[in-house]
Queue: 3 jobs
Job 1
Amino acid sequence: MVKSKSIYSCVECGGRVLKWQGQCPHCHLWNTLVEAVAEKNSTRFNYTNEISRVQNIEKIKIGEEPRYSTGIAELDRVLGGGLVDGGVILLGGDPGIGKSTLLLQALCYSSCDRAVLYVSGEESASQIALRAKRLSLATKKVHLLTEIQLDRIQEVLGKEKPNVAVIDSIQTIYSESLQSAPGSVAQVRECAAQLTRIAKASGICIILVGHVTKEGTLAGPRVLEHMVDTVLYFEGDAQSSFRLIRAIKNRFGAVNELGVFAMTEKGLREVSNPSALFLSHHEEKVPGSCVMVTQEGTRPLLVEVQALVDKSQALNPRRLSVGLENNRLAMLLAVLHRHVGIACFDQDVFVNAVGGVRITEPGADLAVLLAIVSSLKNKPLPIKIITFGEIGLAGEVRPVQRGQERLKEAAKLGFVQAIIPKANKPKHSVFGIEIILVDRLEDAVTAIF
């Protein structure tokens, strides 16, 4: 028996080398090479339509991509308005987060006016039918295929010609033209490329379900994310019933859009007012609490930032933040000391974003520092006050994007005061909310305390 020849493929760039190395010679990243079986050279791609010709861009006829709803408004928001014919969507998330449940619900809702197909490589037909029954879904027009062989899936797609097809999951599909096992770098790349080719040639919208690694990134080669049109991440805490779906890449809409769901006995339910999830309801004013307005894509969200400052019992005081960047916390404490004269060098500082939300924008800086000062002085902020703004190293309060929309969201939820950067002064007054404009950090601290 002839021994199979091994090669080493990079999971980031897809580059190949004959011998293992610590660093990929193509993308220069470390520890990204994994062993795979060397495949024989063969032509696996056939022409499905006429040969392309050179065209002048100005003469190409263009039009708005028609979209159709999934039946789930929060999912439509993240997708940029709905599904697009010929689009390829990659949905990743932790095991048990609810990826299959969400897509099964979407297919059942879409089946009213669209032909849909659910391809499962992980569960049996009876398991999926049992889940649909438990969720009380209308599955009369939903077609199901339990298959992991790529050629068979291609044959069914060509025969059934659905408008929407879900492949659950891409890591379980394999092609017989390759010798490597399902889930390997070569198999994932080959199957994704073939399915993407079918979607573009036939106009079928294909949704691929992807596994994630223990680091939280999508399993398989990084080229998988480059192939598809949209990359969605399904996030959530195992201890919480709330789920967040976030768009990381979208060729048909805005990125960083956020959809919020609640996991119930009847499946995933949309949350119409997500700001309520990230706000605590205190019976009285408490020190160390500050409400900010963050921006997730085109959606403004109100999030409560909590801080606890306590005298340190160790030589090195602790700096811990949950939901915010830890390195930025250390920088903000230095700015607070240098420009306001409030020192925390002998204090433990803990900062938390309520509800498990992750805030990555610098617009949370002002809220974090006001919460820290409130906890340190043991003086609560006024009720119904919000803030946002980025803090520079010189102590200035810098503007953030979409300030007018943030203020409107705060006023809609009953807030009556706002401390914002001077450069974010609204062109038109926002009804029901008093604006306090600040230019420097010390101005904001003085205005409150």
Note: The longest helix spans residues 185-202.
Job 2
Amino acid sequence: AQYAGARSVPLLAGAPWLSAVPGAGGVPTLASLYGTQVGPQVAAARRAVQSATVAKILFTSGSTGAPKGVLNTHGMLCSAVQASGLLVSSPQLPVGLDWLPWHHTVGGNATLHGILREGGTLYIDDGRPTPSEVAKTIANIRDVRPTTLLSVPSALQMLADAMEVDDALREAFFSRLRRMTYAGASLPQEVWTRMQALAVRTLGRPIAFGSGYGTTETGPGISITHWASQGGGEIGLPMPGLTIKLVPFEDRYEVRVRGPNVTPGYLRRPDLTAAAFDEEQFYRVGDLVQFANPAQPEDGLRFAGRLSENFKLSNGSWVATGELRLALVEACQPLVTDLVIAAPDRHDIRLMIWVHPAERQRAGGSGDGELSPAAYAAIAARLAERLQVHNRSNSGNTHRVAAVRILHTPASIGAGETTDKGYVNQRGVLTGRAALVDGLYSAHPGPEVIRL
């Protein structure tokens, strides 16, 4: 019933539907199919499946515009999971624990298909990386003790917080773990360092801790650090069979990719499909990268932001949002989980910041919701100190922060401010909280705006 509205969407109205539970207005249930007799039509249907046959349609998160229906073919998905398996597979059967949704490419393709390829076991985590839901994840870790973990930076940060004060949880988490991978957003170096310190404390050695980079259009793999990563925003080298074309863009490179795991296009949108590929049929990812070590390209790439998120100040200077965001999150650790950089066509840079739940509580506030004036002031003072240190080394107007405010409420998935993968949609937040942005730049700002 909760998805009844989706059935009226023109692109989906003619599609066949199944429901996990009865009572969905005449829609057949999964259970009703279990008694179906296997006849010649099943064998015929199997024989009809080719590499180009569409296996599923996943809609993009909308972080760069309206969601688009990405055609995921059988060949595309098999190529993606095989490439990943060649780099990070294990001789032992994996045991996974995952909260990421299956309607997004990381949970529904990378995690699910990876476990299926290896013949492992996947436990569905009913927790989430939020103050109110993370306790479920912690309880599940104690029970499952996964051998592999693929998650987003916000979840890993909360997990590190919990393990630093709970030795039993730390022992359970690392008891069978062989590899951790993060995706969806850049991981602050401080979180990577803390997690490795916990691994050394438990195992006597660091854990294999890498990063994956991809999109819904690539099923999702583009690149991965299949070696002992050192953190710092590394996204590794291309997956086997995939070609990355780097197009110069100022001091960075725009990413374009071509290979067997790239989508043939978008559902009923030939216009968007044509615009998504260049003259050599490379898919335009829309992200920017730099070399981790320009003198040694084999050391891989480093994420440097989304092309669509960069903006100009009123003086015409470009702000490299992705790179600056990562630098500022690092500068404000352990206080900050994420931030938004404002604003296009303004005269300087100002920030809206989400504070880590543990730091909110340490200041006398709640883990989420409205902060008391006293808690707000305490956190603001610590933020100001860190940002002033940043400014002393970054005096240019495309890097220097002029003011900041703390956001009381988390980024909203429903309002398009964040994706299920944990990536903050900068444009969506600036649009949805336009009044707060105006207050940041007011000639007479309110008491919650901290000038630097």
Note: The chain is about 35% helix and 20% strand.
Job 3
Amino acid sequence: MKKVYGAYLCTGCGIGDVLDVDGLKDAAADAGIAMTEHACLCGAAGRSFIEKDIADKGVNTIVVCACSPRVMQKEFDFGEQTITVRGNLREHVAWTGGLKEDGSVDDFLQEMGTDYVRMAVTRAQKTELPEPYKLETISKKILVMGGGIAGLTAAKEAAAAGYEVTLVEKDAQLGGKALGWRKMFPTAYPYNELEAPSIQQMIADVQGNSRITVKTGCEVARIGGSPGQFNVTLKAAGVATEWDAPAKVTADQQDLINKGELEDPNKGMQKYTTLNPEGEIYGAVVLATGWTPADVSEYEHLGYGKLTNVVTNAEFEKIAKTGKVPARVAFVQSPGGKDNDKDFPYCNSVTSMVALKQANYVVEDNPVDGTAYVLYQHMRTPGNTELFYKGMQAKDGVFMTKAAVTKVSASGSSLVVDVEDNLLGEDLQLEVDMVVLAAGMVPTTVADPV
């Protein structure tokens, strides 16, 4: 672009009152661009003043010395084919001082103003219109990693938008953990009743969609390239290849490897920067590889792994899927006891909703004597799920309280849960048949280098 310069000085907002306007214009001219002044550049008349020069003189590189570039951005936007540089004379100069006691211009303030003018002019002279980097070819294919409910949803939505989709699932069948659900969260108003799982219908929809290619028993070895041209190496699940994603090696570890003092964990693998000539090209990759239940065995006072019938929420869902659940169940959301109010690692709104869903199983399977205690430090039920939460609050047999669970112990064939700092204001001992710990959802990517 052949530059045609125009520099404009606003004298409004106190700028012209405390600074030598002619001196500022001279500074711009000395730097290489003649400057004109206006009393209010951000107003309609001021914008027209600049637009006239654009139309009549072909000005395409504009210097505006006025207010902060953080404000009036629309007023000083003259289109994508122009360069506009803002010099902040208002907030950074004029508003930081004033005239001397004798009414003359402060020399320091004036010097600072001329510096801002020179900087704006120089920046305009050195600035060029940005040219976007464009790939020679851009793939419109989308890869979805993971065939659980998130991956199936992503594949369906991408296909509905007109894209070709490849869905990769390392297991032999689609569905992921949703296959083990007894019920799913409400998806329709009034959001107060659990629903039958829709996972089988989702699987059928994906498998029957001509835009979606499904690859089961398959996983991603590595991803190279960049957006628009991701080079993806696929492999049979569980098989080691030279194109597997390499393990992370620190600078110190590499030094030991070079000295022969440490075995190279990536021996025999292709360098990560090397693109597989047989790799498949995708424009975008959706990561939906799921999660694993967090380890809760470290919380010894809760008895997991030691006491019979202390289970995680994932284990309780399996029990509910295959049969009737016990009549008295305590759902523990936070493991900190009286020490802190932290939840289990990787807990979130999903684990809160799972506790409510599973509490519903208890009273559903045991209509006469079903009792579910939801003991929490934090309950997270955002959006429409708040309606399900309120419905569970009102359900007979379900008791919820903010509480510190200090101990779980055996008492014959039952369990006793010690509860302190609850909303009732008194310590409790709850005798139950089972305790369910709200194990969080650890992303699979925590341990997977892909």
Note: The mean pLDDT is 95.
